[in-house]
Amino acid sequence: MLAAPQVSAFLPPRRILMGPGPSDVYPEVLAAQARPTVGHLDPLFVGMMDEVKSLLQYAFQTANPMTVALSAPGSAGMEACFVNLVEPGEKVIVCRNGVFGERMRQNVVRLGAVPVLVDSPWGQPVDPDAVESALKANPDARFLAFVHAETSTGALSDAKTLCALAKSHGCLSIVDAVTSLGGVELRVDEWGVDAVYSGSQKCLSCVPGLSPLSFSPAAVDKLQARQSPVPSWFLDQTLVMAYWGGGKRSYHHTAPVNTLYALHESLRQLAGEGLEAAWQRHRDMHLILRDGLEKLGLKFVVDAAARLPQLNAVYIPEGIDDAAARNRLLQEYNLEIGGGLGDLAGKAWRIGLMGYGARRENVALCLKALESVLK
Amino acid sequence: MLAAPQVSAFLPPRRILMGPGPSDVYPEVLAAQARPTVGHLDPLFVGMMDEVKSLLQYAFQTANPMTVALSAPGSAGMEACFVNLVEPGEKVIVCRNGVFGERMRQNVVRLGAVPVLVDSPWGQPVDPDAVESALKANPDARFLAFVHAETSTGALSDAKTLCALAKSHGCLSIVDAVTSLGGVELRVDEWGVDAVYSGSQKCLSCVPGLSPLSFSPAAVDKLQARQSPVPSWFLDQTLVMAYWGGGKRSYHHTAPVNTLYALHESLRQLAGEGLEAAWQRHRDMHLILRDGLEKLGLKFVVDAAARLPQLNAVYIPEGIDDAAARNRLLQEYNLEIGGGLGDLAGKAWRIGLMGYGARRENVALCLKALESVLK
């Protein structure tokens, strides 16, 4: 027998999470998650899932019946959109202005589908004119895929305009709302978004591990008209919906019961505050943070017009050691901010104001702690 | 704006979970899960992940460096094995003696690979002689896939013999240990298991949502020698290992931080008890339960020699209404037992004695409550 390792209980400190996610979790969510586990087919649990669905429909502003929380993180949500909707050989216009647009491209390629790239410089939003040109040049394209709020740069793209362009060219839209949901305006039905996914650990301030997902009726039609089976059994939404849908609940996989308690509670907190109030709070906190960062001499990566309130990317000043500075914030202040990702690695910091994390006390702490490490 | 739904906090009762999983969760695990969320790249969290890995290696009895907890349930663990190791056109011998062997077949087919089925009747273990014949008849087969502990029937197959057969015919073995890990003997290295996956919510008595997974060096070689990219980005173990592996932790996806706290604690409980002591406890509790069930006149689906201690499938006596009886157990005793699945739906109950759930008080409650509803 291999011997049992001697391991102590893990007792994490209380960090203040102001990176790109996970964000500060509502205390009520942590408490909800610790409630007793019930069976995934227990009638009480099934009733709670119905509530999660209606709370997700509210957060997405959609009446889509196919609205669920996938039992896996946001990157599985991205994959679920592509793997269910896109068939081998189909053309997908992929907008790439950061890490997550590139990940979309990789998903398309792995499926044997054909990506058409619309590139924008890192830190800029997707360019609707370039998208329109690509749509015109590729009349056989079936999808337009883009990231609403690019977590790697802090740029907000104009999802409303982009989805309208997709529709007018006969394309379905696939939208990454991982960092946008709950933090900035997102209106799935009004804007005509066809497939959208998010993550539990950003502006919903839930623990990480789940991916809210919603398909429009047009997306469901596309799924049902597939010529080939969905290549992934786990992510096949026709099977998932047999469990999440109304009526008889068919076993598909064991739902992550306690994490769904957590999501239920975080969505309840959002509904209690109100979506528009939450969007406003993110803007308000961002403005205070922005003023403070500018006073410290920090420059934003993204122009004001496209700046995400919930993700503030700023260049690291010359002469400051990235890792050492972030380590001091963590060790001395229990404060986590994010490093740069991809092209911005080592060059920028990403300061999150997400969900429950977007509070005055966090902004104040962050500014004071940064002032100290920038001295 | 769509209006916010009015939803109350979800306050589940304390159920006693004696179905096929989720099982009764250790109270220490629920407490661990509620600890403050830290970042998935926080040095303290990364240290905890190293401990999870060594605890998983202990539970699996393996030194495999590629041992991780996937950020999704056991069915994603199954898919991860097939999607990483099996390429289109390759032949896989799939043993089918219940629901989960059939699910393996579906995974193989969706990948464009070729399943060769070895069927055994429901309730019986996989037949090594039939497997050997299939291996001889298919010298071009690359894999042997089977379920160690079939959750749909309660049958235990002889994994040691089957893996030895696979090896002697040049096949890699893919083993479903969802219900076996922690409940019955499983020795990954000694038995030569090449790819094995499990679930957090069975005999580990953690909350549902994670899938422990381990690949042997031979399986890693097969993965690295692939001609085609892994079709799934989310499940691509070459990417996952860049995060779970030693050295620099590369961001792949946001780990389910709090659920990993829970798994860490549940594995710590198992290591504290000792694996062999846990196996013995499952056997001991099973014998007491078996005697009581037989006194109530209930007949087992599986012969004694292949019976899983942690999953007791018994036929529903004639004249007893399945749904009504289970509903009474739930409403009057807060006791959940499982219904039948697949061929056994409506015909059998599945009584779980998994992990923390395998205790004298649970056995006593279950027997007394069953006595009452069978009257």
Structure write-up:
2 copies of one chain form a homodimer. By secondary structure, chain A is an alpha/beta fold. The first copy, chain A, folds into 2 domains: 16-22 and 274-374, Aspartate Aminotransferase, domain 1; 27-271, Type I PLP-dependent aspartate aminotransferase-like (Major domain) (Aspartate Aminotransferase, domain 2), CATH 3.40.640. Chain A is built from 13 helices and 13 strands. In chain A, strand 6 and strand 7 form a beta hairpin. Chains A and B meet through helix 1, helix 2, helix 3, helix 4 and helix 10 of A and helix 1, helix 2, helix 3, helix 4 and helix 10 of B. Chains A, B: The modification N6-(pyridoxal phosphate)lysine is found at residue 202. Chains A, B: GO terms for molecular function: alanine-glyoxylate transaminase activity; L-serine-pyruvate transaminase activity. Chains A, B: InterPro entries: Aminotrans_V_dom, Aminotrans_V_PyrdxlP_BS, PyrdxlP-dep_Trfase, PyrdxlP-dep_Trfase_major, PyrdxlP-dep_Trfase_small, SP_NH2Trfase/AEP_transaminase. Chains A, B: Its cofactor is pyridoxal 5'-phosphate.
